[in-house]
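hey m, so remember when u said the C-alpha cells were messed up on ur end? i reran from scratch. heres the input so u can diff it against urs
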Amino acid sequence: MNRSDQLIAAVEQHDHATIEALGWTPIVELLRSWAPKQLLTRGELRAYAATLGDQHPDRILGGIHALAGDWRPVPGVILGHLREQDPTDHDRSNGRAVDPTRTPAALAATLNAYTAGSLPLRLPTPPRPVTLLRRATAAAEAAFRGTSTHRTLTGGREVLTARLLPGAARCYG
C-alpha cells in the first residue's frame, strides 16, 4: 500500500496516529486555518490526500503557503505548483495526449520508407462536387440553400454544381 492509500484510509477511519506518522498533521491544521470561511470536511481532506498523498509533507506545506490567499488552494492547484517547482518531473501527460504517429522517430521512419519506395503516399481524396441538373424553379432554388453553387452551361443545359456547406441540410428533389 503506497503512502497515498495509507493516508486515504487513515482519513476515512479518523486514524489521527497514522495521519501524524505520515507527517500530515501540520498540513491538516493549515488547511483548517481558513475556518470559519472554509471548513475542512472529511471528503475534502480525502481529496487532498488522494491528490497530494505521495508528495513530501514539507513540499506540500510550502506549496500551500505559496498559494495562500483569501481562499484555501484546491489540491490540483497545489499539485500543479509542486510540479512546476520540480525540474525532474518530466512526464506530465501520462501518455494520454501523445500521438505515437507524430513522434520524431515515427516521422523519420515514415520518411525513410517513403523515400525508399516501400511506402506509397496516399492522400485522402477531396470531396467531389455533386453535379445536378437544375430546373429553373423556386423549389430548386430552395433545395440549394446552404450550398456553395456554380452554374455552367453544358450541352445547351444549365448545370448547377453544388457543394454542401457544413451544417447544411441535405435536400434531394
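this time it looks ok to me. The radius of gyration is 32 Å. if urs says something different then somethings off w ur setup not the seq
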